[in-house]
Design goal:
The protein is α/β, with parallel strands linked by helices. 31% of the residues lie in helices and 25% in strands. Strand 9 and strand 10 form a beta hairpin.
């Protein structure tokens, strides 16, 4: 299984912290976010990595060459990172991920490595990680059907019907990625939908019979870092076991 990590964004809401550094290299505790992600994946047996870079990509590439030179890492540069969203970064991974079993991660998540272990241990072929907490309009929210499968996933989901927030970690089967990149081809190449969240592709696949089960990891620490306040809170609240 390959790990696909999306790390192209400018992270303007984290300025001035990201004026001279990409978000994934921001340090929380003794490690930066990207090092935490790689160490968590390696600890759970992942050995093949694909990372999409964009903003200040040279710094990310230098970091990986310095810390993980022994690993099999494919770097893909999104040269239009300033005008596109994560759906386009995901689209760029097609040569490496289409028809493959993958673990997809956003690069701005601080998370307990046990989350990866739970995802990989799941017998369901396609799962996403969910955190149950008070929701607002900002989060990517999840609504499930009577079988517990994802029925809706977006920021505009009705809060009262949502069971939690998708934190940005998904396991996908080869059948799912085949369908996903077929849909992304339509969305990107024909419809020009390159500046939206990739969760829209997930929603469009649901009527076609492709969806996710959910893994609730509310008991394990995770946080998405979008703002300076998120960063400051993470510095204060990170569990000592992860420091």
């Amino acid at each position: 299984m390959k790990a696909i990590i999306l790390a192209a964004g400018i992270a303007s809401r984290l300025r001035p912290l990201t004026d001279t550094m990409p978000k994934c290299l921001l340090q929380i505790g003794q490690k930066c976010l990207l090092q935490r992600a790689f160490d968590s994946l390696i600890a759970n047996g992942i050995s093949e990595f694909v990372i999409v870079t964009g903003y200040r990509h040279e710094q990310i590439e230098e970091f990986l060459a310095t810390h993980y030179s022994e690993l099999q890492i494919t770097c893909i540069y999104n040269n239009v990172y300033a005008s596109t969203n994560n759906i386009y970064s995901l689209w760029l991974t097609r040569p490496e991920a289409d028809g493959q079993e993958i673990l997809l991660l956003d690069s701005d998540i601080l998370f307990d490595p046990q989350i990866v272990a739970r995802v990989l241990a799941s017998k369901k072929p396609n799962v996403l990680v969910l955190n149950d907490h008070p929701l607002s309009e900002e989060e990517i929210k999840v609504i499930v059907d009577e079988r517990g499968n994802v029925q809706e996933i977006s920021k505009v989901c009705a809060i009262e019907e949502s069971i939690g927030e998708s934190i940005g970690i998904e396991k996908m089967s080869s059948a799912y990625t085949t369908a996903l990149f077929r849909e992304l081809e339509l969305m990107i190449e024909e419809e020009g939908l390159d500046n939206i969240f990739y969760e829209r592709a997930f929603e469009r696949l649901i009527p076609q019979g492709y969806t996710f089960g959910v893994i609730d990891t509310t008991d394990l620490y995770s946080v998405e870092l979008d703002t300076v306040e998120d960063f400051r809170q993470a510095q204060k609240l990170i569990p000592s076991s992860l420091f």
